[in-house]
TrEMBL record:
It comes from the Bacteria. Residues 302-323 form the 4Fe-4S ferredoxin-type domain. The lineage of its organism: Bacteria, Bacillati, Actinomycetota, Actinomycetes, Mycobacteriales. Keywords: 4Fe-4S, Electron transport, Iron, Iron-sulfur, Metal-binding, Repeat, Transport. This is LutB/LldF family L-lactate oxidation iron-sulfur protein. InterPro entries: 4Fe4S_Fe-S-bd (IPR017896), 4Fe4S_Fe_S_CS (IPR017900), FTHF_cligase-like_sf (IPR024185), Helical_ferredxn (IPR009051), LUD_dom (IPR003741), LutB/LldF (IPR004452), LutB_C (IPR024569), NagB/RpiA_transferase-like (IPR037171). It holds the Pfam family LUD_dom.
Length: 484
């Protein structure tokens, strides 16, 4: 992937995508505002959610061990994965042990992060996405553009064409008379997936939350496909980021209020699925939980950057971001687009690539993202923090041009004689500019700074000279030396 400015410039040329994004984010944004305004204690809920997350992260090791103990006691098998490679290897081995060559998947950001579908394909295992938007992305050989609505950049006509072109290649074909009516599109997807639901032996999910004191996992969704994946297969594998832990059930109550309102603009999600280990004669016979680190421990060690681990993947920040609305999700080069991706991806993947190093700068710092975040992540502060890191890494330990300039200015301002000399040198250059009032772009290190700013030409007279002249004209006998 190229760096964000280059990719964004290409995406801006896609007028259909920009129109789709503006329409969809506007609808979600307005729905969220309506349901949030219904609550008198919305800000108190945000404060509570942030406090719960911060408290949990401070003692994350203890809560993870408690979750593991209780999940095992309930009949689940818990695996620990340090990185994406280890997590993929664990999942592939479990699928093979179940004697399966295909899996059903619930929408999961964690599995997209580790590129599980690609790893399964290399191992000869077919992975079928069951979320409608994820199905559209998969059949279209596309890449998600939004956390909540991965196919937000597609309109109904494009979805119809994708279904007619691709469904027959991987299962039940779409009806020949398929239209772009949403009901007909949903029906085509439902019929296409039904045969896969009924034959699948293995289901793969993520989790919105993991409850430490019972070893339970929680998924909230809107379509019911997740419920099918969690109950029909014989084996269930859940890949869960270690930051998804909540200590108690009472903590979950807060998040079940802030998440749906921030995410889909609903008072509650249509489907909330909670499972704890294995239940006799009900659901999967084998339940596996893969606790994923993948550099989250490194993020946790950063006292500033760790605030990003509060994120509950609601996507509210994307829906208000003026940069995302125009550039779309693909320009971010990650499954985490928008403001949250700009601070999460560089911490999970590092800043070694052009796109990752550019992401902290993919923002106007307007602060709208922080205002709507249900867990009060100070996104602008983290963007500035990461920008500093990127610049420091690029310098390789050498002082920046800005730092050198500030030290030079401190030296000049530290003595009045040096300041007077600098002022005289500046005013003497005034005659070179003639009638011009501003200086154009400056060369060298100042080119980037001056290209977007109008710099006034030096004045013909300094304030000190003006003051002495005015005093001399009013009182020729004034002691001008004492005016200094």
């Amino acid at each position: 992937m190229p760096k964000f400015p280059v990719a964004a410039r290409d995406e801006l040329a896609n007028t259909t995508q920009r129109r789709n994004l503006a329409h969809a984010t506007g609808i979600i944004r307005n729905k969220r505002a309506e349901v949030v305004d219904e609550l008198d204690n919305w800000e108190e809920l945000r404060l509570a959610a942030a406090a719960i997350k911060d408290r949990t992260l401070r003692h994350l090791d203890r809560h993870l061990e408690e979750f593991e103990k209780n999940a095992i006691a309930a009949g689940a098998v818990v695996h620990w994965a340090a990185d994406a490679e280890e997590a993929n290897r664990i999942v592939i081995d479990l699928v093979r042990a179940a004697g399966a060559d295909e899996v059903l998947k619930v929408k999961s950001m964690a599995t997209q992060e580790i590129e599980l579908n690609e790893a399964l394909a290399e191992a000869g295992i077919d992975a079928w996405e069951t979320d409608l938007a994820e199905l559209i992305v998969q059949l279209g050989d596309d890449w998600p553009s939004h956390i909540l609505v991965p196919a937000i950049h597609r309109n109904r006509a494009e979805v119809r064409d994708i279904f007619l072109r691709r469904m027959a290649e991987v299962g039940r074909p779409a009806p020949d008379d398929l239209t772009d009516d949403p009901r007909r599109l949903a029906e085509a997807a439902r019929l296409h997936l039904r045969e896969k639901f009924l034959r699948a032996k293995v289901g793969i999910s993520g989790a919105n939350f993991a409850i430490a004191d019972t070893g339970s996992l929680v998924i909230v969704e809107s379509e019911g496909n997740g419920r099918m994946c969690l109950t029909l297969p014989e084996t269930l594998i859940s890949v869960v980021g270690i930051e998804k832990i909540l200590p108690t059930w009472s903590d979950l109550e807060v998040f079940l209020q802030v998440l749906p309102r921030s995410s889909t603009g609903e008072r509650e999600n249509p489907y909330t699925s909670i499972w704890t280990g294995v239940s006799p004669d009900d659901g999967p016979r084998d339940v596996h939980i893969v606790l994923l680190d993948n550099n989250r421990s490194t993020v946790l060690a950063d006292t500033v950057g760790r605030d990003v681990l509060r994120c509950i993947r609601c996507s509210a920040c994307l829906n208000v971001c003026p940069v995302y609305e125009r550039a779309g999700g693909h320009a971010y080069g990650s499954v985490y687009p928008g403001p949250i991706g700009a601070i999460l991806t560089p911490q999970l993947r590092g800043t070694g690539s052009a796109v990752d190093a550019s992401l902290p700068f993919a923002s106007s710092l307007c602060g709208a993202c922080s205002d709507v975040c249900p867990v009060r992540i100070p996104i602008p502060e983290l963007l500035v923090h990461l920008r500093t890191r990127v610049v420091d890494e690029k310098r390789g330990g050498l002082p920046s041009g800005e730092s050198a300039a500030m030290k030079a200015m401190a030296w000049v301002f530290g003595n009045h004689r040096r300041l007077e000399a600098a002022q005289k040198a500046a005013t003497s250059s005034n005659r070179f500019f003639g009638r011009r009032s501003t200086i154009g772009a400056l060369p060298g290190p100042l080119a980037g700074w001056s290209s977007a700013r109008d710099i006034p030409v030096p004045p013909a007279e300094t304030f000190r000279d003006w003051w002495k002249r005015e005093r001399a004209e009013r009182n020729p006998r004034a002691d001008t030396e004492s005016d200094r």
